[in-house]
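Give me structure tokens for this 254-residue protein.
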Amino acid sequence: MYDIGTRKQALVLMGEGRSLNSVSRETGISRAAIRSWQTRIDPLPRMRVSPCVRCRSVPSHPEDTAAYSYLLGLYLGDGCISAHPRSGHYLRIACADAWPGLIDACEAAVQTLNPGKRVYRVQAQGYVSVVGYSAHWPCLFPQHGPGKKHERRILLDSWQQTIVDAHPWEFIRGLVHSDGCRTTNWTEKVIAGERKRYEYPRYFFTNLSSDIRRLYTDTLDKVDVAWKQPNAKNISVARKASVALMDAHVGPKH
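Here you go.
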């Protein structure tokens, strides 16, 4: 039996972003006991935490799977996870200053996936890092690992693929918002002896990782968007019907 002070102290540690395993090891209290206290004891607001959806005894999906699919795309493109010196992890998504709407959307997604924790912005030269702290970012983004993404394998876990299959456009939008753009291309043709200029919209996606490019193109295939790979790093969407689909579900960054 544990007194109420011991129970609340364990919940304080949980409220600091510690994992269930680490609090259990430090206090000698079983994970099951701590988990039960989270639902049976009415702690202070800062102590009210929910077990991680991935590392609890029965893993489940994040509550807002659409927001997760979008944030997954952002993370694979311009995100990183770094360890806190004491415990926990920081998720950072780099967003160019030129796209304030993207910065707002990124912040909203991080907040949705990490409720109860503050999301903040760190200004750098030409871009903003949207930052969130949690002990469980590696649980939500198992692609985290040492080294650069394009120098190691990037594969989705089956539960992630299920979410992407349910929300393909959110995933595509996250990837395009991180490493893509909508541009206007032009070409010239000679018709009846007269040279004419034609302009047409096109979506480009550029990433050094062949695995991430494949995740992008596999998802484009599922929503019937035609694409081409003009060179080793770029994916192009230029057919009129496919651009119209991208405009309807993704649109230019703003």
